[in-house]
Amino acid sequence: MKIATCLKEVPTQDSRYELADGGMWIKESDLTFGVNECDEYALEEALKLGEEHGGEVTILTLGCQRAEKSIRKGLAMGADRGILIRDEKDQLKSPHAVALALAKVLEREKYDLILTGTQSDDWGYTQTGVLVAQLLGLPHATIVMDIQANPAQKTVKALREMESGWFQWVELPMPSLLTIQAGISQVRYASLKGIMQAKKKEIRSIELSDLGIDFSSVPQLEVRRVYFPTTDKKAEILEGATEAVIEQLIEKLKKEAKVL
Amino acid sequence: MAGAIYTLIDHSQGKIQSASLESLVIGQRMAEDAGSSLHALILGHRIEFLAEQLTNSRIDSIVLLDDPKLEVYDPDLYCEALHQILNKKQPHILLMGHIYQNIDLAPQLAAVMNKGLLTDCIGYHKAEDGFTFTRRMFRNKLNADVQIRSPHPWIITIQSGSAIVDDLREGGAQIIEESVDLSTVEVRRKLLKSFEASKGKVDLSKAEKIIAVGRGIKKEENLDIIGDLAEVLDAEIAASRPVVDNEWMSRDRQIGSSGQTVTPNLYVACGISGAIQHIVGMKNSQCIVAINTDPNAPIFNIASYGIVGDLLEIIPALTKKLRKE
Lengths: 260, 325
Ligand SMILES: Cc1cc2nc3c(=O)[nH]c(=O)nc-3n(C[C@H](O)[C@H](O)[C@H](O)COP(=O)(O)OP(=O)(O)OC[C@H]3O[C@@H](n4cnc5c(N)ncnc54)[C@H](O)[C@@H]3O)c2cc1C
Ligand SMILES: Nc1ncnc2c1ncn2[C@@H]1O[C@H](COP(=O)(O)O)[C@@H](O)[C@H]1O
Hints:
The complex is a heterodimer.
Chain A: E1 2-6, E2 9-11, E3 19-20, E4 25-26, E5 33-35, H1 37-53, E6 56-63, H2 68-77, E7 81-86, H3 95-106, E8 113-117, H4 128-136, E9 140-150, E10 155-161, E11 166-173, E12 176-180, H5 192-198, E13 203-207, E14 220-227, E15 236-237, H6 242-255
Parallel strand pairs in A: 1-6, 1-8, 6-7, 7-13, 8-12, 9-12
Antiparallel strand pairs in A: 2-5, 3-4, 9-10, 10-11
Helix pairs in contact in A: 2-5, 3-4
Chain B: E1 5-9, E2 11-12, E3 15-16, H1 18-34, E4 38-44, H2 48-52, E5 61-66, H3 75-89, E6 93-97, H4 100-113, E7 117-127, E8 130-137, E9 142-149, E10 154-158, E11 174-178, E12 190-196, E13 209-213, H5 223-233, E14 236-239, H6 241-245, E15 266-270, H7 276-279, E16 287-292, E17 305-308, H8 311-324
Parallel strand pairs in B: 1-4, 1-6, 4-5, 5-11, 6-10, 7-10, 13-14, 13-15, 15-16, 16-17
Antiparallel strand pairs in B: 2-3, 7-8, 8-9
């Protein structure tokens, strides 16, 4: 089975953000970056399918040069090779444009299965995977919690999570695309051997501009303003040393909130 | 008058989804602000009774698409039906709830029609050159106002909880039946079976106090301190999804959109960041206390009291103090 898995590099979860460009964007220089959470799970699923059915796992990332580190991490987990579409100037301003670039590279090879995450941790659009599927003319299933592939019959079964505790099993012909939910299984750690081997694995770089895509008719999104959320109800932050804070809290819970 | 606004009315098990009614509330406001007409759009089979439930709402019309092929959701059939109806009606904007079904459907529709899709919006502003939509980014830590730059219709999905269903304004609406031709659609995805996850034994909906723990607990061994605090407070313990995914707590103690919804008097969120999927399950608690090392964690936006600090230090100290009392 030939599997491709999309992997995005995003600011790590503990990132603290500062605004820049007069509230038009954030300061990126102080951030640390890592693999998007559900993309790690997608890669894990790809590796398991590869182990079960034989075949090759390719990681596909669109991002700047820095993202090579995240691809390398995926190779250390066991993926066979990586492709980086370099968008150094962060030109692509919509999931549609990103999906078009990803699809352009994916269509060059005949993958049996394409996996993406459900949602990116930075933009959180929850649409790139399905857009890629549709642009490639492939069927899809979203928010997948379990996968059973049958390469001989060229079908794949996917367990979709749905509203209020409901699930459904669906069957798709391969090739097809699945968007993977975080928590589908346990993500493996890279072994020392894996890390050593990853150094020798191929990461092919493709310049975005070399893909020859005409983005002029692609739906674009324009960010007008970025700001910290304000709510009517914001927590009263209790300050001081641990002892003092705890005393305040107990006092407040008893006298103000009257819940103790 | 600006172009029409349509709101997709989703339903399951014979009930209209509240996310759709919330979207309709937002649609009413947008229509008023823009001076445009508002229409509800409902797809399915034998669902006239659902359309009738909307006839006394302030909407210009209820477009009903009743077709046996739309009885059960399928992305190819629903996408084609929406495509045809949107081509016919040429609306400005199509609103829908950001629910699982639309996460599956909306991007396919956007790709087929080559139209802009903005997901999980929590509100809108009216700018001189049209609407901009507010959505959360970076795991809820920042808001962004975003505009779609492409020809209409724009497809907008609305986050659950962005409006209050009771705010739906009354009026009168006629049902207009439309039909679509789905005879050439090739259904690629086969539905094998739908099932409801077995309900666990634990019902937290009536709990008065809940101590909930998130990924900030770091290790399973550390859970003991949560249990100790719960014991002195006579509280139930609960968790965010990653803790449950790690199998550190049973699934029936998960709070959130794919877990339980609770409304205790006291909800202590320990090392929980405050992702929307968690918040929808506990935001109506009477008093929320958040303990988190990150002063910008979104959980502080909905908590009553916050402590910025290490839960591994604060929780045991709190337990000790309460024991003494
Ligand atoms: C379709 C879907 C459904 C979902 N359903 C649910 C659901 O039902 N319930 C749910 O909870 N999630 C759900 N999620 C997942 C949700 O998006 C979040 O990923 C999840 O809620 C995050 O859990 P968390 O806050 O424990 O972890 P994180 O977001 O990783 O947050 C951990 C927090 O702990 C803090 N922390 C770290 N160390 C310490 C310390 N020593 N002391 C104090 N604080 C510390 C950090 O600052 C951080 O804020 C769902 C997601 C999707 C896509
Ligand atoms: N720049 C990118 N490079 C690789 N994969 C991406 C990129 N952007 C999005 N994806 C994939 O699409 C999924 C959904 O992203 P989003 O639509 O932004 O929420 C992610 O989890 C990734 O798997």
